[in-house]
């Protein structure tokens, strides 16, 4: 599903752990901020900490809770702390695992040659969107990009382009893939979980530049 022509590409910045970074991401123009509730991640926060950080968000900026193979209790604890959250399932969760929570969610797909994204999408018809990340050892947040030509044109759900994006390559990514949204973590960091305000601002500016070029091409 391609975005409505002329609509802005939404921006998610993931892996925030500090108030100062939350405020800078909002100031840069992020539409959604991700909090990693995967204890093995170097960017992990507790549900309670995610709640503290998410309470800083103004209206119309969406908190996203990222899980990797979490138990139902862990997901429930996250939602108790951040009730307005969109969920992001980034592990081996089955459609049943995702659907039984009964909340809107993004399902991450690990892109690699031979991966059948259309079949994967057909298994998750209730997903609000498919977040496309590089297939890496571990589950994500690696800063590695994948070959965008692996993305079929007719993905039936909104596509969130992710994996190794940064201020230098996101214009190409948006123009090539025309995703509904982009998601970045490593590409706007000075260290894992520590964001760089300048990089976040430049990333959002680059997305707006891509949108402007697409709009120009339409006129
Ligand atoms: O950020 C993490 O530590 C993480 C851990 C486990 C699964 C996903 C994780 N992050 C997500 O990975 C993608 C790509 O991130 P990057 O920009 O390549 O660093 C992104 O969706 C993050 O939300």
UniProtKB/TrEMBL annotation:
This is N-(5'-phosphoribosyl)anthranilate isomerase. HAMAP family: PRAI (MF_00135). GO terms for molecular function: phosphoribosylanthranilate isomerase activity. Belongs to the TrpF family. CDD domains: PRAI. Transmembrane segments: none annotated. Keywords: Amino-acid biosynthesis, Aromatic amino acid biosynthesis, Isomerase, Tryptophan biosynthesis. The keyword Isomerase applies. Pathway: Amino-acid biosynthesis; L-tryptophan biosynthesis; L-tryptophan from chorismate: step 3/5. It catalyses: N-(5-phospho-beta-D-ribosyl)anthranilate = 1-(2-carboxyphenylamino)-1-deoxy-D-ribulose 5-phosphate. Residues 11-205 form the N-(5'phosphoribosyl) anthranilate isomerase (PRAI) domain. GO terms for biological process: L-tryptophan biosynthetic process. Its EC number is 5.3.1.24. The gene is trpF. The keyword Isomerase applies.
């Amino acid at each position: 599903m391609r975005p409505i022509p002329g609509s802005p590409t939404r921006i998610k910045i993931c892996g925030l752990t500090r108030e100062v970074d939350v405020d800078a991401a909002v100031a840069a123009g992020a539409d959604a901020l991700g909090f990693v509730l995967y204890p093995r991640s170097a960017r992990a926060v507790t549900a309670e900490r995610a709640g503290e950080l998410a309470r800083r968000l103004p209206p119309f900026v969406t908190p996203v809770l990222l899980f990797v193979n979490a138990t139902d209790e862990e997901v429930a604890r996250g939602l108790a702390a951040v009730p307005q959250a969109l969920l992001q399932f980034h592990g081996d969760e089955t459609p049943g695992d995702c659907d039984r929570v009964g909340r809107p969610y993004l399902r991450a797909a690990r892109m690699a040659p031979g991966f059948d994204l259309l079949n994967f999408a057909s298994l998750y018809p209730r997903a609000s969107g498919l977040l496309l990340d590089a297939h890496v050892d571990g589950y994500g947040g690696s800063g590695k990009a994948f070959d965008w030509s692996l993305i079929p044109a007719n993905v039936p759900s909104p596509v969130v382009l992710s994996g190794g994006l940064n201020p230098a390559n996101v214009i190409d990514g948006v123009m090539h893939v025309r995703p509904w949204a982009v998601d970045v973590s490593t590409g706007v960091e000075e260290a894992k979980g520590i964001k760089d305000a300048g990089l976040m601002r430049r990333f959002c500016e680059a997305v707006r530049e891509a949108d402007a070029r697409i709009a120009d091409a339409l006129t």
